[in-house]
């Protein structure tokens, strides 16, 4: 005769209030992550603008030429 096996009872579904609170918490966390990403981007742009202002137009042109050379080298490496 087979013996019945014990199974763990399933957890009850969350209460509607708990689900709504979790949804609000998730939305707040998403909004905070979005705000942090925007702040990080703004800080990077401000840093780049400050660096460019400190270097001036001649330095900016030199930096652009250097970046173009690095991009060309990278493209050549990929093609090889």
Give structural notes.
By secondary structure, the protein is mostly helical. It has a domain of 55 residues. Helix content is 80%, strand content 0%. It has one helix and no strands. The radius of gyration is 28 Å and the shape is elongated. The model has no long low-confidence stretch (mean pLDDT 80).
Brief account:
The protein has 80 residues and is mainly alpha-helical. Helices cover 80% and strands 0% of the residues. It has one helix spanning 16-79.
Features:
single chain; 1 helix; mainly alpha; 80 residues; elongated
Topology:
Layout: H1 16-79
Mean pLDDT score? 80
The beta-strand count equals 0
Mind summarizing the main beta sheet? none
Order of helices and strands: H
Cα Rg? 28 Å
The amount of helix comes to over 70%
Measured between the Cα atoms of the first and last residue, the distance is 73 Å
What structural class do the secondary elements suggest?
Answer: mainly alpha
């Amino acid at each position: 005769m087979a013996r019945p096996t014990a199974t763990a009872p399933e957890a009850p579904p969350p209460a509607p209030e708990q689900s709504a609170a979790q949804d609000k918490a998730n939305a707040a966390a998403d909004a905070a992550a979005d705000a942090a990403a925007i702040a990080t981007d703004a800080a990077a742009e401000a840093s780049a603008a400050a660096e460019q202002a400190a270097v001036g137009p001649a330095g900016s042109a030199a930096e652009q030429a250097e970046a173009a050379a690095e991009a060309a080298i990278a493209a050549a490496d990929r093609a090889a």
